[in-house]
UniProtKB/TrEMBL annotation:
Belongs to the GST superfamily. It comes from the Eukaryota. It comes from Xylaria multiplex. The lineage of its organism: Eukaryota, Fungi, Dikarya, Ascomycota, Pezizomycotina. SUPFAM superfamilies: GST C-terminal domain-like, Thioredoxin-like. This is GST N-terminal domain-containing protein.
């Protein structure tokens, strides 16, 4: 069936938009879909104002749609032909172009849905707390930044131990030989979403290698996927430690 909607990904460097680019590359390889990519660079760590011309909040990822027929582009969310929020974009890509690529069995459906939500509302949210604290410290003048960093170091270590490690342990325990993916028996949307938080935690040193063996193996396997590797090459940076600053 001819592709009637051509997506364009508005991709911000060093951001959650990466997993949407990765998904598009997997769809391109598996199903031959066509898509366009527009890269945007951060300015002093922030998204450029040009993104507000695409979506009023100026946040990335943004996916816009172009119709190849005389039919108008559909309104999937609020604005015609415009989608935001990485988790929802991934769901749309799966429904519109996936042809079952990331669909899981009925036995794994609830698991897949759970880990999609857990990845965003628990894993990424907890990781973001630390990122914000560390980012605020770096914005201070050098001398003050050093002092505040030293003072807050015990608090940051405590947060890692008490808040993040139980999450990593929970994720590690969820993987086994029968269900090696967070989506279950096969790779799916939950794995895309969990990977964002784990990428962030890994790059920033919150997740120590070797402490959670099954989680480490899953992460290594995910990063070796051809779509992930291709997205790294096509994107404009994926440094979650400095965000290109």
């Amino acid at each position: 069936m001819p592709q009637t909607l051509i997506p364009t990904l508005h991709h911000l460097s060093h951001s959650a938009a990466f997993r949407c680019l990765w998904a598009l590359e997997e769809l391109k390889e598996a199903n031959g879909i066509k898509y366009n990519l527009k890269n945007y660079y951060r300015r002093r760590g922030q998204a450029p104002p040009e993104l507000k011309e695409v979506f009023p909040l100026g946040k990335s990822p943004i996916l816009t749609l172009e119709s190849t027929t005389d039919e108008p582009v559909p309104t999937i969310q609020v604005l015609p032909g415009v989608l935001t929020e990485a988790q929802l974009i991934l769901r749309f890509l799966s429904d519109e172009y996936g042809q079952g690529l990331w669909e899981v069995s009925s036995e794994d459906k609830n698991r897949d849905t759970f880990f999609q939500g857990f990845a965003v509302m628990t894993l990424s949210a907890r990781v973001d707390h630390l990122v914000v604290i560390e980012a605020l410290i770096t914005l201070l003048p050098f001398g003050l930044s050093y002092v505040i960093g030293c003072l807050l170091s015990p608090l940051i270590s405590f947060w890692k131990k008490s808040s993040l490690e139980p999450i990593f342990q929970f994720l590690d325990d969820a993987l086994d030989d029968e269900r090696p993916w967070f989506s279950g028996r096969k790779f799916g949307l939950a794995d895309f979403n969990v990977c964002w938080g784990i990428d962030m935690a890994s790059q920033r040193g919150y997740l120590e290698k070797g402490q959670f063996t099954k989680l480490d193996n899953w992460h290594r396997t995910v990063k070796a996927r051809r779509g992930y590797v291709a997205a790294l090459e096509l994107g404009n940076g994926y440094d979650l430690k400095t965000f290109g600053i």
